[in-house]
């Protein structure tokens, strides 16, 4: 019923700048560029109408143009209200992609943007593939447009939190199509979540606050993949890092990695920075805020803002909120200032530009392979969550070696026999944990 809007971005005149950054990113994304080369004749995504909902950054632009180079039609929204890079969105719109994304939108605009991606072109052809990050697009389709599900071949999901939602759907019997868990490819979660955050966590604090990190006491809540990268990020900057965990294995890992492991209650009063990485809810609560020291920096690098009790902060201390600059707010709680970044939303994409291209190339090469597999072989899968096979995981890694000058040792036939693998891989059994 509503009129067709071909795209909506903040400022289309940013397209040239965006295009120049995209060209630089392409040189850092060998996995995606080699898929373009490998599949340019075969066009495996021909006929696919992929609706994507994933941070509209420069790196994502290279993903979008890879999907298009493989034959797909693509529409796009961002999976976070603060994560769009407006020059990237402008470059996509300028090249004719239906992108609906701009930095700093309202929640209503966020929903509107996702909704626009469901129907393609003037004749409103419905999507037939989903590429999601966090599950908001999936939920929009399955909860509000369930009639579209039958026409969708499958979905691929980028992040831990979205994958968690998918497994819940399987348990409840509400997943009506096959899904590929991209997050748990080794070349995704053990690289993007970890080495990505190792670079982008401190980047976010620096761009937002310019505060000195060396010598500061930083508390990292959670020591999963994102927590490991985040803790390493601050350690590398010379901060004194404490970790909190609920899982004894991860707590022991943190301790063995040389971090103090304490409860948040024990260290919160002495922390200069507190950052949540858990993918869980209600990590920083009222009594923590009330115990914090003056000028503490509080932020979250997990997918959703409910890791921090923003509702309590806004309800009880919202009248003290003073915006220093976009995504940097000062609150006053009982006489002490609290610097809250990105309104509690993921800080590396809210206050900085997310992970570097090279690591995102690993994630997005997995995404592209997942889209090809589900588009071409959907019928071979049931309505469940699947992983890409290990040989593809190894292929993704392999495609990134030459760029950084890695010499891979070749396994001899007799050696392969001795350790029980084939010389061309897979090189590890399924249960191996890396
Ligand atoms: P994970 O499951 O590997 O790690 C989460 C850790 O938090 C676990 O070790 C868990 O035991 C711990 N935890 C849970 N509740 C806790 C509590 N109450 N206190 C202390 N620790 C607690 O998940 P992963 O992959 O590290 O992802 C975490 C979040 O980050 C997810 O929401 C994910 O979607 C998001 N993510 C964000 C990225 C970014 O660029 N900002 C990149 C990748 C993932």
Automatic annotation (TrEMBL):
Which molecular function terms from Gene Ontology are attached? adenosylhomocysteinase activity
Pathway where this protein functions: Amino-acid biosynthesis; L-homocysteine biosynthesis; L-homocysteine from S-adenosyl-L-homocysteine: step 1/1
Q: Which residues bind NAD(+)?
A: 159-161, 193, 222-229, 245, 280, 301-303, 348, 355
The reply on keyword Hydrolase is yes
This enzyme's EC code(s):
3.13.2.1
Quote the record's cofactor note: Binds 1 NAD(+) per subunit.
Source organism's superkingdom? Bacteria
Q: Which residues form the S-adenosyl-L-homocysteine hydrolase NAD binding domain?
A: 193-354
Listed GO CC annotations? cytosol
| Name the record gives this protein | Adenosylhomocysteinase
